[in-house]
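Exercise 7. Given the encoded structure of a 190-residue chain, write a plausible sequence.
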């Protein structure tokens, strides 16, 4: 029977007391000795199992370059870990990359899973910045087209010299100016 560590300590302390008192002859029963051997044997098996599991996960190379970590690992646990990351990517609708973050105490950790050949977060930001620039240009053109609407022909400002504040064209120009970060001065905040 395998003993708990507390039971092993109790037996050890009891046998040690008997030994210190000079009672060498019958210091332990056969059952106690067999239990201790069973415990030692079980602990050795656990140790071998843990060593085998540790040896199963091997890191063959680990390189950090340009803010990226390139790691080559083998073993069943590594395969399970990689499968879990791929499943996480797919279940969260990953097209290029999926990022998740977790707080541990006061520290925040982030993991990004990226499909090889897919856009990196930096690539995605660059593409979105380009799209914003294109949309800003379209808005500028729309603003200019609206400004060129003749007040005389404006359905909201018949007979006035300028577009009124209630004029839908004027309101649209104002909204475009807000999106572009100011009036038509060639500068934008975006």
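Solution.
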């Amino acid at each position: 029977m395998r003993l708990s560590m507390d039971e092993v300590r109790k037996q050890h302390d009891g046998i040690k007391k008997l030994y210190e008192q000079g009672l060498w002859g019958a210091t332990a029963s056969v059952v106690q000795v067999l239990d201790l051997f069973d415990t030692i044997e079980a602990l050795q098996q656990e140790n071998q199992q843990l060593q085998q599991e540790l040896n199963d996960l091997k890191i063959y190379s680990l390189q950090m370059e340009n803010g990226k970590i390139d790691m080559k690992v083998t073993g069943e646990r590594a395969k399970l870990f990689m499968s879990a990351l791929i499943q996480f990517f797919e279940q969260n609708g990953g097209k290029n990359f999926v990022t998740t973050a977790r707080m541990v105490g006061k520290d925040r950790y982030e993991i990004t899973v990226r499909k090889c050949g897919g856009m990196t977060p930096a690539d995605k930001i660059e593409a979105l910045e380009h799209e914003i620039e294109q949309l800003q240009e379209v808005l500028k053109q729309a603003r200019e087209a609206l400004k060129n609407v003749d007040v005389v022909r404006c359905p909201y400002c018949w007979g006035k010299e300028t577009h009124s504040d209630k004029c839908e064209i004027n309101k649209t120009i104002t909204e475009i100016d807000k999106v572009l970060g100011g009036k038509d001065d060639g500068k934008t905040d975006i």
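Remark. The chain has five helices and four strands. Students should compare their own answers with the one above.
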